[in-house]
Structures are given as structure tokens and as C-alpha cells.
Amino acid sequence: MQPLNHIAQTVNEKQLMTRFWRAGVQVWQARTGWVVVLAGFMIALVLLQLLMQLLLNLWNRNFFDALERRDAHALWVQAQMFVPLAAVSIALAATSVWGRMTAQRGWREALTRQVVGIWLKDDHFRQLNGMVKGTENPEYRIAVDIRVATDAPIDLALAFFSSFLTAFTFFGVLWTIGGSLDIPVFGHKITIPGYLVLGVIVYSSVMSGLMVLVGHHMTSIIERMNQSEAEFRAAADAFRAEVAPNDQKAVDGEKRGTLWLRLRAVLLWWREFCWQLVRTTLISHGNYLLAPVVGWLLCTPKYLSGAMTLGELTQAAAAFVTVQTAFNWVVDNYQRLADWRSSARRVATLLIALDNLEATDATPPS
């Protein structure tokens, strides 16, 4: 059997993710009924929220069409309709938060109980302490990394499911409202069918590609930053250890040197994370500002030609932003994905170390 202190070097990404999900599936299987009911509830909420998005998008069109006609009665009717639409949308959003956090709390509790149970079994926490590279400060992994590793997948999965349905649904709105666009080229007319759909796909693909390009080091930086934070806390905790009076001064000096080295490492990786975040923020905030403008500009030729009303223009522009937001799931969640992968890997490293300890205990002495 391989030495425990070589675990961090020999376990690859696939093995870490497989071990984490194996632990996750085990706790889900133990509570199948609860998982099915809550998953069905959350899916129903996503569908209802999508319906409200469609109704609000249609309301947007009707309101601005009435505004263009200067129809005071129609504007008053639309203003009255907005109140229940907004109230239902707000209630669904609040209910979604409750459901999501209930699922996260249940998963965190079950996984934490599983890991702590193995950690405490047969005094594994004593054997693990300081023996395994990559599992330093297991208390932090249990308290913090398990929380992040169980919170993020539920948020990300629901966001991905919602984004997929939203993009698919509002593609229809863009195709119907935008129609085709005729472009004169050297005396000939080129027709682009569903040009708004094509435009949002191209735009979103460019923004997602840029985010992946500038943020591809995010996961490793976050993992090293978390590791340095854990090592800094461990260095501070070391001052509480009992030391013989004769060795007190020498040991304290060594501990002080280690503490300052760990602090330097924390600040170094924090600086690296800062610059990584600056680069990804340039893309995400630029996308936030640019997307509505691109939607309006793409709709402008149809509006100026009289083929699109003001209400249709605002509806199409709003649908463009909705679709690109859904399509840019990677752009919006890249940092969250990196945080999750980092924490999941740290939890998996601890689990694999505990697995090896259990295997060692089960091996009869030769």
C-alpha cells in the first residue's frame, strides 16, 4: 500500500472528483424520498419563474406599444397588471431561496456527519494530523470546504437548468419578433433568417470564450489560496501546544518564523487571486454593460424601417439580454465553479486520506 504522505501527489483530478461525488451520492441514497420531493419542488419553481419571465416580457411589449400610441387607458391597464405579476415573481424568488437553502443545509449536514464519523473513528484524527500532504487542518475542510462543496452544486445545477430552459424559450421570442434581416451587398440582397438568434449566439460565445481564456487559472489559484489560509491558521494554533519549559524559547522562535512565512504565503496567493479577479471582472462587467446595447443596436434597423414597433423593439431587446444571460452561464458562474472545484478537491483529499487509514487499520499485521 502506498504511503499516506504521497496521496496529494498521486491522486489526479478525476480521482478526486469521483471520490467527492461518491460520498455525495451515498448521502443522497440514504434520503431518497426527501431528495425526490425537494428536487420536484425546485423544478416546479424554475418552471413557474420562467413563465413569469415570459409574462413580464410580454407585458414589456404591451406597455411600450401603449406608450408609443399615447394611449392613457392602455397604460393604466398595463400598470395595474404589473402589480400582481411583480408580486408573484417576488414570491417565487423568495420561495426558491428557501428551497435551495433547505437542500443545501440537508446535504451539508449529511455529508458532514459522514466525514466526521470517519474522522473520529478509531482516533483517525490523531493519525491524520500532520501525516498526509494536502490534508493539513482537516477541521477547516470539514467546517468550510464541505459547506462550499455542498452549497455550490445545488446553486449551479439549478442555474444551469434554468438557463437552458430560458435560452430555449426566449430563442422562440427572438425568432418570432426579430424575423429575418435583409442586408444589401453590391446590389444583391442577403437574407439572414432569425438574425437576433444568430446574434445572441455569436455574442454569448465570444464572451464565454473570453471568460474561459482569462480565468483558466482561477481554480488552482483559489485552491492554493485556501490551502495557505489553512496553513496560516494551523501555524497560529501551534502556539497553544504544550512545550517543556526548557524548550519554550527555541520552539516559540521557530513557531514565530513559521507563522510569518505562512502569512507571506497567504498574502502572495491573495494578490494572485486579486489579479485573476480583476481580469475576469473586466469581462463580466463589460458584458453587463454591453449586452443591452448590443440588443438595442441589433433591433434598431428593423425599428427604423417600420417593421418593428417600439413595444416589439423593447421586448426583443429584453429577450436578447435574457437569452445572453442564460447562455453566458459560464461567464456568470466561473468564479463560483472555481470555488466549488477547489473545495470539492480539498474535501476529496481528506476523504481519500481517511479511506487509506481505514484500509491500513483493516490490513492484518504481517
Tell me what the structure shows.
The chain has 366 residues and is mainly α. The protein has a single domain, classed as ABC transporter transmembrane region fold, CATH 1.20.1560. Helices cover 83% and strands 3% of the residues. The chain has helices spanning 7-10, 13-29, 32-69, 72-120, 124-128, 138-178, 195-215, 218-237, 248-304, 310-327, 329-362, and strands at 181-185, 188-192. A two-stranded antiparallel ribbon has the order 1-2. It is elongated, with a radius of gyration of 27 Å. Mean pLDDT is 83; it is low at 1-9.
Write a concise synopsis of the structure shown:
By secondary structure, the chain is mainly α.
Tags for this model:
366 residues, mainly alpha, ABC transporter transmembrane region fold, two-stranded antiparallel sheet, 2 strands, 83% helix, disordered N terminus
Task: List the SSEs and their pairings.
Elements: H1 7-10, H2 13-29, H3 32-69, H4 72-120, H5 124-128, H6 138-178, E1 181-185, E2 188-192, H7 195-215, H8 218-237, H9 248-304, H10 310-327, H11 329-362
Helix pairs in contact: 2-4, 2-11, 3-4, 3-6, 3-10, 4-6, 6-10, 6-11, 7-9, 7-10, 7-11, 8-9, 8-11, 9-10
Report the β-strand fraction as a percent range: under 5%
Q: Gap between N and C termini, in Å? A: 13 Å
Mean pLDDT: 83
The best one-word shape is: elongated
| Lateral strand order in the biggest sheet | 1-2
Q: Main β-sheet: number of strands, strand sense, barrel status?
A: 2 strands, antiparallel
Tell me what the CATH architecture is: Up-down Bundle
The chain-level structural class is: mainly alpha
CATH topology: ABC transporter transmembrane region fold
Helix content: over 70%
Q: Measured on Cα atoms, how large is the radius of gyration?
A: 27 Å
Task: Output the CATH class name.
Answer: Mainly Alpha
Would you identify the CATH H-level superfamily? ABC transporter type 1, transmembrane domain
User: What's the count of strands?
Assistant: 2
Residue runs with pLDDT of under 50 for 5 or more positions = 1-9
> What is the chain-wise order of helices and strands?
HHHHHHEEHHHHH
The domain tally reads 1
